[in-house]
Design brief:
The protein has one domain. It starts with a helix and ends in a 20-residue tail after the last helix. By secondary structure, the protein is mainly alpha-helical.
Protein backbone atom coordinates (compact mmCIF):
# COMPACT_ATOMS: atom_id res chain seq x y z
CA UNK A 1 0.00 0.00 0.00
CA UNK A 2 2.88 2.38 0.72
CA UNK A 3 4.33 2.27 -2.83
CA UNK A 4 0.91 3.20 -4.21
CA UNK A 5 0.58 6.08 -1.74
CA UNK A 6 4.05 7.25 -2.74
CA UNK A 7 3.07 7.14 -6.42
CA UNK A 8 -0.08 9.17 -5.69
CA UNK A 9 1.97 11.83 -3.91
CA UNK A 10 4.99 12.00 -6.22
CA UNK A 11 3.60 11.28 -9.61
CA UNK A 12 5.40 11.99 -12.16
CA UNK A 13 2.29 12.21 -14.36
CA UNK A 14 -1.42 12.39 -13.71
CA UNK A 15 -1.88 8.98 -15.30
CA UNK A 16 0.57 7.44 -12.80
CA UNK A 17 -1.43 8.98 -9.98
CA UNK A 18 -4.66 7.64 -11.46
CA UNK A 19 -3.29 4.10 -11.68
CA UNK A 20 -2.03 4.32 -8.10
CA UNK A 21 -5.45 5.44 -6.84
CA UNK A 22 -7.00 2.56 -8.79
CA UNK A 23 -4.57 0.12 -7.13
CA UNK A 24 -5.53 1.45 -3.70
CA UNK A 25 -9.21 1.05 -4.58
CA UNK A 26 -8.70 -2.54 -5.70
CA UNK A 27 -6.80 -3.39 -2.52
CA UNK A 28 -9.61 -1.84 -0.49
CA UNK A 29 -12.19 -4.03 -2.24
CA UNK A 30 -10.11 -7.12 -1.48
CA UNK A 31 -9.77 -5.97 2.13
CA UNK A 32 -13.57 -5.70 2.38
CA UNK A 33 -13.91 -9.33 1.28
CA UNK A 34 -11.30 -10.43 3.82
CA UNK A 35 -13.10 -8.53 6.59
CA UNK A 36 -16.36 -10.16 5.54
CA UNK A 37 -14.72 -13.56 5.83
CA UNK A 38 -13.39 -12.77 9.31
CA UNK A 39 -16.77 -11.54 10.57
CA UNK A 40 -18.62 -14.44 8.90
CA UNK A 41 -20.74 -11.96 6.93
CA UNK A 42 -19.25 -12.61 3.52
CA UNK A 43 -22.52 -12.10 1.64
CA UNK A 44 -22.90 -8.52 2.89
CA UNK A 45 -19.25 -7.51 2.48
CA UNK A 46 -19.01 -8.96 -1.03
CA UNK A 47 -21.87 -6.67 -2.04
CA UNK A 48 -20.00 -3.72 -0.56
CA UNK A 49 -16.78 -4.75 -2.29
CA UNK A 50 -18.47 -5.11 -5.68
CA UNK A 51 -20.17 -1.73 -5.37
CA UNK A 52 -16.89 -0.14 -4.30
CA UNK A 53 -14.97 -1.76 -7.16
CA UNK A 54 -17.59 -0.60 -9.67
CA UNK A 55 -17.42 2.98 -8.38
CA UNK A 56 -13.62 2.79 -8.48
CA UNK A 57 -13.68 1.64 -12.11
CA UNK A 58 -16.22 4.22 -13.27
CA UNK A 59 -14.37 6.98 -11.44
CA UNK A 60 -11.09 5.96 -13.06
CA UNK A 61 -12.69 6.02 -16.49
CA UNK A 62 -14.16 9.46 -15.87
CA UNK A 63 -10.84 10.90 -14.71
CA UNK A 64 -8.96 9.29 -17.61
CA UNK A 65 -11.40 10.78 -20.13
CA UNK A 66 -11.09 14.18 -18.47
CA UNK A 67 -7.29 14.02 -18.53
CA UNK A 68 -7.35 12.93 -22.17
CA UNK A 69 -9.49 15.90 -23.16
CA UNK A 70 -7.51 18.48 -21.21
CA UNK A 71 -4.10 17.30 -22.41
CA UNK A 72 -2.32 19.87 -24.61
CA UNK A 73 -2.79 19.34 -28.33
CA UNK A 74 0.97 19.33 -28.97
CA UNK A 75 1.28 16.13 -26.96
CA UNK A 76 -1.23 14.32 -29.15
CA UNK A 77 0.50 12.60 -32.02
CA UNK A 78 -1.25 10.74 -34.80
CA UNK A 79 -0.61 7.02 -34.79
CA UNK A 80 1.29 5.50 -37.68
CA UNK A 81 -0.63 2.89 -39.55
CA UNK A 82 0.90 0.02 -41.39
CA UNK A 83 4.35 -1.52 -41.15
CA UNK A 84 7.42 0.62 -40.75
CA UNK A 85 9.71 0.85 -43.74
CA UNK A 86 13.15 -0.61 -43.23
CA UNK A 87 16.21 1.36 -44.27
CA UNK A 88 18.02 0.08 -47.35
CA UNK A 89 21.24 -1.78 -46.61
CA UNK A 90 24.36 -0.36 -48.21
Amino acid sequence: MLPALYRVAVGPTSYDRLVAVNVIGTKTAVLLVVIGTLFDRLDMFVDFALAYALLNFVGSLAVARYLNRTRPQAAKRPRRRGPRKKAAKA
